[in-house]
From TrEMBL:
<dbReference type="InterPro" id="IPR000847">
    <property type="entry name" value="LysR_HTH_N"/>
</dbReference>
<dbReference type="Pfam" id="PF03466">
    <property type="entry name" value="LysR_substrate"/>
</dbReference>
<keyword id="KW-0238">DNA-binding</keyword>
<dbReference type="GO" id="GO:0003700">
    <property type="term" value="F:DNA-binding transcription factor activity"/>
</dbReference>
<dbReference type="InterPro" id="IPR036388">
    <property type="entry name" value="WH-like_DNA-bd_sf"/>
</dbReference>
<dbReference type="GO" id="GO:0000976">
    <property type="term" value="F:transcription cis-regulatory region binding"/>
</dbReference>
<protein>
    <submittedName>
        <fullName>LysR family transcriptional regulator</fullName>
    </submittedName>
</protein>
<feature type="domain" description="HTH lysR-type">
    <location>
        <begin position="6"/>
        <end position="63"/>
    </location>
</feature>
<keyword id="KW-0805">Transcription regulation</keyword>
<dbReference type="Pfam" id="PF00126">
    <property type="entry name" value="HTH_1"/>
</dbReference>
<dbReference type="InterPro" id="IPR036390">
    <property type="entry name" value="WH_DNA-bd_sf"/>
</dbReference>
<keyword id="KW-0804">Transcription</keyword>
<dbReference type="InterPro" id="IPR005119">
    <property type="entry name" value="LysR_subst-bd"/>
</dbReference>
<comment type="similarity">
    <text>Belongs to the LysR transcriptional regulatory family.</text>
</comment>
């Protein structure tokens, strides 16, 4: 007799033989080819070390030992079904809610639209959103605190997978009464780095993109460091000084004339916004659907 766990499908076959009085009928009821059923039964008898079925011209019936095994098999199969139901309930509960982390620009300007589309496919989905700067988003995703994250920084930490979900560009903006608002010529990168700016905090995607673009010239001079694009924008609207912000954050204010966009030559401030996740390369579940939806929106012809 082997101490290995018996094959549950063989136990199910044993109970079906008892119920139908025939190996052939039991095989048909379970959708098993009869030769395969016979082999499965022989393996079970060998494993348990007792005869389980008596085969005769009029059918098959269980031995005394087989009857005892079938009784315990019923209890084992019932508990196995309970286990599968519990696992399904846990899976459904996990899939019924997701936790997302997003940088502020993505959370404010892009994620609401994506989540609205996701609702068409997952109507009962619960969504928890944490808004952090890009560095913190990556940390939380890597620590499995979020199912997926959305960031603005070009630097993807080791151990995370990523996919581009949007394109963006940073632009220089000033209030209408700032000297730069009346310039007839574009700024140079040197003009930008030699001027104190209202900036996002270190660790934000906007700050990282700007620092990286100007790294060959030196370090920017922060006039104010603020924790959100909305705060930076308000400071510029109030006349504090120039700033470099995402077009997503300032497009309406530029259109209304409340902010003036100042052109700059010789500096590429375009960037890709990305989804990041840990674990398997292919992100599954509702979080995976969200990332694919966002990516498809990016690649869809306009």
């Amino acid at each position: 007799m082997s101490d290995a766990w018996p094959d549950l499908s063989a136990l199910e076959l044993l109970m079906a033989i008892d119920a139908h009085g025939s190996l052939g009928e039991a095989s048909r009821q379970l959708g098993i080819a009869q030769p395969n059923a016979s082999r499965s039964l022989r393996r079970l008898e060998k494993q348990l070390g007792v005869p389980l079925v008596v085969r005769g011209a009029r059918g098959s019936h269980l031995t005394v030992q087989g009857t005892v095994i079938a009784h315990w098999a019923g209890a084992a199969l019932a508990e196995s079904r309970n286990l599968l139901r519990a696992a399904k309930a846990l899976r459904d509960e996990h899939e019924s809610s997701i936790t997302l982390c997003a940088s502020m620009t993505v959370a404010e300007h892009l994620l609401p639209g994506w989540l609205g589309q996701l609702r068409h496919h997952h109507r009962r989905l619960g969504i928890q959103l944490e808004v952090q700067n890009s560095t913190t988003v990556c940390q939380r995703v890597r620590n499995h605190r979020c199912d997926a994250g959305f960031i603005e920084t070009p630097d993807i930490p080791n151990g995370l997978h990523s996919a581009v979900v949007a394109r963006d560009e940073l632009v220089v903006v000033v209030s209408p009464d700032h000297d730069w608002a009346r310039r007839s010529r574009p700024l140079s990168p040197t003009d930008l780095i030699s001027t104190p700016l209202v900036v996002r905090e270190t660790g934000s995607g906007t700050r990282t993109t700007l620092d990286t673009a100007l790294a060959h010239l030196g370090h920017i001079q922060p006039l104010l460091e603020l924790g959100s694009s909305a705060a930076v924008r308000s400071a510029v609207l109030g006349g504090a000084g120039p700033a470099v912000l995402s077009t997503l954050a300032v497009a309406e204010h530029i259109h209304s004339g409340d902010l003036i966009r100042v052109d700059i030559d010789g500096l590429d401030l375009r960037r890709s916004l990305r989804a990041v996740w840990s674990g398997e390369r292919i992100l599954t579940g509702a979080a995976g659907d969200l990332v694919r939806l966002a990516h498809n929106t990016l690649t869809r012809p306009h």
